[in-house]
Amino acid sequence: MEPTTRLKQDSLIVIEENSANDHQQTNVAVNVNTGTVDLSTGTYTQGSKSQVMVAGATASLAPESSAMVHNDPVGNQSEILLKKGTGDVQRNGESVKLSDWEKVSFERGSPRMARVKEVGPPTPIAPANMAPIFAAAGQERTVDFAWSKMVNAVGYHLRISRNPYFSSLERDEKLDKPETKVNGLTEGPYYWAVQSYDSDGKESVASETNRFTILPRGSNAQSAMTLELDPLIQHGHVIEVRGKTEANARVMVNNREAPQPDNDGHFTCFTQELHVGENVITITAQNAAGGVNTQHRTVVIQ
């Protein structure tokens, strides 16, 4: 898989190299002249290289890594932030190895790079992405929110909005624990994201945005959504779930997103390993119009 590059507005890069040989080894090198660039590497063949250069520094990224590189020639400030994976930064004979949420920064004339540990964004846990939450018709709902605990974080900034741009907020709270209960949410779709902040009040970048929908129990949207399930297939402690829904629907199995249904709406998904005893499998299909259908199946693992 070739590396992917995303440029922020008013950024300029130069592709120094982009080649592949007969052994499927790839060499990719990008030079960031100005602005901010996000880079990600997938799984690539041993012997391949993925490099990004900025102001005389060269960062070599390992497979399954991602980094944000910023260069401000006017302000004389450059930085490389490793968000995931590992990387090695070389500059003026100095070598610095980076891991998750570590950053090097330097000015043009500085002899060495400054290395700091950044606070990273949490991973949203609950409500799961695209999860339906049911409430009695016309009733407000209390929703449990949870996200991963982050090292170096002293608190978290939770934002909940009715739109994916967070241009207006239903909730805007700072919390000292990676969980909370939010009261008074009414029917409709919601989007939420969370940030970490350190002892100096510096906030991380935002987490991924999750969406959930509060629906009246027994609503027409739920009954109108097609979801037909085949008999479950057991593979040891893993259950294979097959079924049919709308072609463009999103399917969640135990709060994990299943592969996109094919053109006929058929889908196949495997659960995580289940524990011995009785397990409940929840299958939810949701379309772009907000239609939702949720079904539950109980299995017993011997």
Features:
single chain, 302 residues, mainly beta, eleven-stranded mixed β-sheet, five-stranded mixed β-sheet, 1 helix, 27 strands, 2% helix
Question: In brief, what are we looking at here?
Answer:
With 302 residues, this protein is mainly beta.
Task: Write the SSE topology.
Blueprint: E1 4-7, E2 12-20, E3 26-40, E4 49-54, E5 57-61, E6 66-72, E7 77-84, E8 87-91, E9 94-98, E10 102-106, E11 114-117, E12 124-126, E13 131-135, E14 141-147, E15 155-161, E16 171-175, E17 179-185, E18 188-197, E19 210-216, H1 220-224, E20 227-229, E21 233-235, E22 238-245, E23 250-253, E24 256-257, E25 266-270, E26 277-286, E27 292-301
Parallel strand pairs: 3-4, 13-19
Antiparallel strand pairs: 1-3, 2-3, 3-6, 4-5, 5-8, 6-7, 7-10, 8-9, 10-11, 12-14, 14-17, 15-16, 15-18, 18-19, 20-22, 21-22, 22-25, 23-24, 23-26, 26-27
